[in-house]
Write a structure and sequence with these properties.
Elements: H1 2-18, H2 23-49, H3 64-77, H4 80-88, H5 95-119, H6 142-169, H7 176-202, H8 215-241, H9 248-277, H10 285-292, H11 301-319, H12 321-324, H13 327-345, H14 369-397
Helix pairs in contact: 2-14, 3-5, 3-7, 3-8, 4-5, 4-7, 5-6, 5-8, 5-14, 6-7, 7-8, 8-9, 8-13, 9-11, 11-13
Keywords: Cell membrane, Membrane, Transmembrane, Transmembrane helix
InterPro entries: DsrP-like, NrfD-like
Subcellular location: Cell membrane
């Protein structure tokens, strides 16, 4: 009964915390609410008219929604780069940032699930995935594996920080014997969610563009570059606008992780380009379409070459210590890298896999305004959720939010 009483108090205090703040905070939350409403309107149009209002077709059946899903799986997995040093290696420099990273993982995973629902057309078809009611098809379908690992990782990233914050809210020290095993499991689970997502694509033999042994490792490398890059930007905003002062040393250590991951990602990109173009076969047509265009079709050319240019520039900046330790330069490089990997793992990965079609026909894909509206709405929802989680966690971590007996 006492724990239930404390939990009710935590919910009440958290609600008071997230519904009050500075003028900038209120404007930010109001802006996110407006964008979410626009996204809901676009989604209502999709529910009424079906997926015909999107740019997808029977030729290109995955588009902006699955592109964002794939990218956000990596953002969620990147939390492991803070969890492992903090809970497993006992590096105190990461301790300040770990709960922020896990909050970002929760928001990213909720967005992942939202993008899947949007891509399925609507929530009414989700019953097909419920074991015993629908046809879950486990373990034969890789999609069912993806459902399990994503929801399992979401549970871990909610339960571990909740336990830690719940104890600190009461003024108690969290018991490492309870949360450390879960943290170790989350490290392994983070790798699993990205590998399983990569296996989803690799297992489709009819799509040679994805049938690449490097896809899984490259997913991880790009995730450990883009995810921590976003974490650095979020930490910079938090230490500027809140009382939670993140040490520069912590940001510099995360920047080192981003630099190494970005370098590995570039090396793997070069390896893939060599494989596709040194001894090309008819299976290289998707790559030719992406990088050089095919039969006069070149909708993705500006996207992919912009992404590669940004990726190279960001990696070069991060490679040099003096540049990396200059905060303004670091933030610029993180923005470049984040956007570059979003393009590369989005349009640069998903769409070319469908082009050309089985009979050689090229049908290009561009998202419609409805798709863009739904996508921006889901991103706003993720930012809204993260802001709520971060504001509450910061108040508890700083000692300003405590249980009043």
């Amino acid at each position: 009964m006492r724990r239930l009483k404390v939990f009710k108090s935590l919910v009440r205090d958290s609600f008071d915390t997230i519904t009050s703040g500075s003028r900038k905070y209120n404007l930010w939350m109001g802006f996110l609410t407006f964008v979410m409403l626009v996204g809901m309107y676009c989604y209502s149009v999709q529910l009424e008219h079906g997926l015909s209002v999107t740019g997808m077709s029977d030729r290109v059946s995955w588009g902006l929604y699955i592109s964002n899903f794939t990218f956000l799986v990596g953002v969620a997995a990147a939390a492991v780069m803070l969890v492992m040093p903090t809970y497993v290696l006992k590096d105190i420099d990461f301790k300040q940032a770990v709960l922020i990273g896990e909050g970002l993982a929760v928001a990213a995973l909720i967005m992942c699930l939202a993008f899947v629902v949007a891509d399925m057309g609507g929530p009414s078809v989700l019953w097909h995935m419920i074991p015993g009611i629908g046809v879950f098809n486990f373990p034969n379908s890789m999609l069912t594996w993806d459902v399990i690992v994503l929801n399992g990782y979401l549970f871990l990233n909610i339960s571990i920080p909740f336990y830690i914050l719940f104890r600190r809210y009461q003024g108690k020290v969290p018991n490492p014997k309870i949360y450390v095993p879960g943290a170790v499991l989350s490290v392994l689970w983070a790798v699993a969610i990205h590998l399983v997502t990569a296996f989803l694509y690799q297992g489709l033999q009819a799509r040679p563009f994805w049938n690449n042994a490097l896809l899984g490792p490259r997913f991880l490398a790009s995730a450990f570059a883009a995810g921590p890059a976003l974490i650095i930007l979020v930490l910079a905003i938090i230490r500027t606008y809140t009382e939670f002062k993140i040490k520069t040393k912590t940001i510099n250590k995360i920047a080192m992780i981003v630099a190494v991951a970005a370098q590995i990602n570039i090396i793997m990109l070069i390896s893939e380009l060599f494989k596709e173009f040194y001894a090309p076969t008819h299976h290289s047509e998707s790559a030719y379409y992406l990088f050089f265009g095919l039969d006069g079709k070149s909708a993705l050319l500006p996207w992919i070459w912009t992404a590669i240019s940004m990726n190279v520039i960001a990696t070069l900046i991060l490679t040099f210590k003096k540049l990396r330790e200059n905060m303004r330069v670091l933030f610029f490089a993180c923005i470049l890298l984040f956007v570059a990997i979003w393009i590369e793992k989005g349009f640069g990965l998903i769409v070319p896999g469908f082009i050309p079609g089985p009979y050689g026909k090229i049908v290009e894909y561009l998202p419609t305004k409805i798709e863009v509206g739904v996508t921006i709405g889901i991103w706003a929802m993720g930012a809204f959720i993260f802001t709520i989680l971060a504001k509450t966690a910061i108040r508890i971590e700083s000692g300003r939010l405590r249980y009043k007996k």
